[in-house]
Amino acid sequence: MLYTNLKHIESADAHQKFISENENVMICCGRMGPMCIPVYGIMEELEGEYSNVKFADMEFDSPESHVIRSVPEVKSFMGIPFTMYYKNGKLVKATSSIQSMTQVRTILDSEFKTAK
Amino acid sequence: MDSNKHFDAIVIGAGPAGLTAGIYLSRARVKTLVLNEGTVGGQMVLTHEIANYPGVESISGYQLSMIMRNQAKKFGCDIKSNITLESLNTDGEIKEVILSDGTVFTADAVILTPGGRSRTLGVEGENELKGKGISYCATCDGDFFTDKEIMVVGGGNSALEEAVSLTKYASKVTIVHQFDHFQAFEFAIEEARNHPKISFMMESKITAFHGNEKLEGIEITDLKSGLKQNQPIDGVFIFIGYVPNTEFLAGKLELNQWKEIVVDTDMQTSVKGVFAAGDSIVKKYRQVTTAVADGTIAALAASKYIHELHQIKKLQHIL
C-alpha cells in the first residue's frame, strides 16, 4: 500500500479509465522507498498548481501495474519509480528513478503546455 | 517590512532537525516559517524502517516525517516545501530569505537545517544513466539486477553492507574503492571478504559510464598506475557518503573544510541570530535522534535570542 495523499490506481482497468478520461495525466509507479517518496512529495506539491494535470500513484509490486511495467518505453529502466506522463490516453514521456522538482516541472511544462 | 512576510524565526530545511525546531518554536508561540527545498522529512523519509527512535518500536521514515510535520502545523507552524532558495542575507539585524520566484521573507532569527544529500561520482554518463543501470539504493533497485554482474562503489559501512545484500540478486558483485583499505566496521569488511560472490578492485575509480539506452560498461582507472580500461557491466550501485547542502552559505558564515556549519553548544553559528542544526553541522554522529536533539537546542536558543531582541526593541521604543 502506498501511504501518499495522491489518488491510488489499483487495477489495470482503473488505469485505462484514468488515462482515457483525462487529457493530461502523470502517474508515479513505485514503492514506499527512498527513490519514490520524493517524487510522490513533488506530485502532491504540484497538484494544486497544475490544475490541467491529473496526478496518481500505482503500486509497483501489484500485478496490476503490468500496464506500466511492460510497455516498451520502460524496457531499459532499472530503477524505481517509473513515472509516466500521458496525453489523451497516449504515453508521451516516461522517466526512471528519483526526479527533482525542476525535472518534473520541465516535463509538465513541455508535454502539457496549456495554461496552468 | 511586509508584516505578512515577517516571522520571528525562519527555519530552512524540514528534516527531523528543522521540524523539531518548528515544533518547539511554534509551541512557544514564536511565529515560525519552515522553508524546505525538497520533500518534508529530509533524509529521514528515505529510511525504510526506523527501529531505534526511543518511544516508537518501529516506524517508516515517511510516517515519522508526516507525524512531525502535522505536530508542527498543529502548533501553528507555517511550512512551505519544494521551494527554491535564491539567497540568504544575514548581514543586518533582520535576516532576509529570498526565493527564486522573488518572494522575500524576513525574520529576527534563522535556523539552518539544510541537511545533506548522497554524494555522486560526478563523472561522464552518470546523470544520463541514472535509473538505467546506475543506482543509489539497493533495496529499491536490487531486484532489477537478478543474475547480473554489478559493481558497488565505496568503502564505508553502507557500501559493504549493501554489497552483501545485493548478492541476493546479482550473480557477481565487485566492490570498487579508491583506497587500499576500507573505512567500514571490521564485521562488515569480514562479511564482504568472506562472501563467495564478492570480489574487490582496490585503489581504483570509475571515471566514465558508457551506454545508450542503458548502462553497458564503465571506464575504470587504476589509481596506482593511471591505467584506464573499459569493462562491460550490467549495473553500478554508488554508496560514497553524503555532502552537506551548504553551498548557499559559502562566505556568509563559518564552514569547516568539509563545508559543514560550525556551531557552538547552543547551535549558534558565527553570525548572531543565525543558528544551525542537523546533518549539516560539524559533528560525528548523524542520526534522527541527534538531529532532533540539535533542533531542540537551536529552537530554545533562538527563542531566547528572539525574546531578548524583542525586549530590547520594546525598551528602545519606550525611551
Rg of chain A, please?
A: 13 Å
| Average predicted confidence as pLDDT of chain B | 94
Low-confidence stretches of chain A: none
Number-wise, the strands of chain B total 17
Shape of chain A: globular
Could you characterize what this model shows?
The complex is a heterodimer of chains A (116) and B (319). By secondary structure, chain A is an alpha/beta fold. Chain A has a single domain, classed as Glutaredoxin. Chain A has four helices and five strands, in the order E-H-E-H-E-H-E-E-H. In chain A, strands 1-3-2-4-5 form a five-stranded mixed sheet, sandwiched between helices. In chain A, strand 4 and strand 5 form a beta hairpin. Chain A is globular, with a radius of gyration of 13 Å. The termini of chain A are far apart. Chain B is of the alpha/beta class. Chain B has two domains: 3-118 and 242-318, FAD/NAD(P)-binding domain (3-Layer(bba) Sandwich), CATH 3.50.50; 126-238, FAD/NAD(P)-binding domain. Chain B is built from seven helices and 17 strands. Chain B has helices at residues 16-27, 61-74, 126-129, 138-141, 157-166, 186-193, 288-318, and strands spanning 6-12, 32-35, 78-80, 85-89, 95-99, 104-112, 116-118, 134-135, 149-153, 172-176, 198-201, 204-211, 215-222, 228-232, 235-238, 242-244, 274-276. In chain B, the strands form four sheets. In chain B, strands 1, 2, 3, 4, 5, 6 and 17 form a seven-stranded mixed sheet that branches. In chain B, strand 9 (149-153), helix 5 (157-166) and strand 10 form a beta-alpha-beta unit. The mean pLDDT of chain B is 94. The chains are: A alpha/beta (116), B alpha/beta (319). The A-B interface holds A 3, 31-38, 40-42, 45-46, 75-80, 95-98, 101-102 and B 38-41, 45-48, 60, 62-63, 66, 81-82, 84, 130-137, 139-141, 144-145, 213-215, 235.
Describe the structure concisely for a colleague.
The complex is a heterodimer of chains A (116) and B (319). Chain A is α/β, with parallel strands linked by helices and 116 residues long.
